[in-house]
Amino acid sequence: MPTNTEQKILDAALEVFSEKGYSGARTRIIAEKSGFTEMTLFRKFETKENLFNRVLTDNKERIMEDFDSLLVIDEELTDPKDQYRRLVMNLAELVERNFEYVNIIVYERQRISNSITETFIVHLRNYLKKVFPNHKTDPNVLSFMILSFLYFIILNKKTETEFFDLDQAIEEFINYNSKCLEL
């Protein structure tokens, strides 16, 4: 568990890495944003790479818990389309709440292990196989498509260049995929 100082530095680093990318993120800026000196940052993490890796691992663990909590079949929803709607709406909220982390995963994919992305895909794929055991769509492709779609519409919202209504876009996505899944 990180100390208060470490957590403030990790929070600032998450924001700066998301905005600037690994190469553009300066430790001086991270230190200033966290309210500490660069010396404190290096004393706690030694290198920028160590700091980056801690941002990835600490956030992955936290987000994975939230992600997995969404991948529970709601026994009250008997219509698979309702299960799918609940899933996509909840995932949209999760992506929006954790957009900085997701943004790092997308833009720094050359620098990070594919296992981070694969973990999310595999967990979602396994859920989709349970909910839609007879569908003809590849669950890996569907998982990747859901997460990619959600990333891009939240990115669109975050960059304040909304060309469409977010809720309407999600609803259309759900309806389209429901037809493809023959729900």
Outline:
The protein has helices at 4-24, 27-34, 38-45, 48-70, 80-97, 99-107, 114-131, 139-158, 166-180.
List keywords for this structure.
77% helix; 9 helices; mainly alpha; elongated; 183 residues; single chain
Largest sheet: none
Counting DSSP H or I runs of 4 or more residues, the number of helices is: 9
Q: What is the typical, i.e. mean, pLDDT?
A: 89
What oligomeric state do the depicted chains represent? single chain
* Shape category: elongated
Number of strands: 0
Fraction of residues in H or I helices:
over 70%
- Which stretches are low in confidence, meaning pLDDT under 50 for 5 or more residues running? none
Radius of gyration: 18 Å
Structure description:
With 183 residues, the chain is mainly alpha-helical. It has 9 helices and no strands. The chain has helices spanning 4-24, 27-34, 38-45, 48-70, 80-97, 99-107, 114-131, 139-158, 166-180. The longest helix has 23 residues, at 48-70. The protein starts with a helix and ends with a helix. The model has no long low-confidence stretch (mean pLDDT 89).
Mind sketching the topology for me?
Layout: H1 4-24, H2 27-34, H3 38-45, H4 48-70, H5 80-97, H6 99-107, H7 114-131, H8 139-158, H9 166-180
Helix pairs in contact: 1-2, 1-4, 1-6, 4-5, 4-7, 5-8, 5-9, 7-8
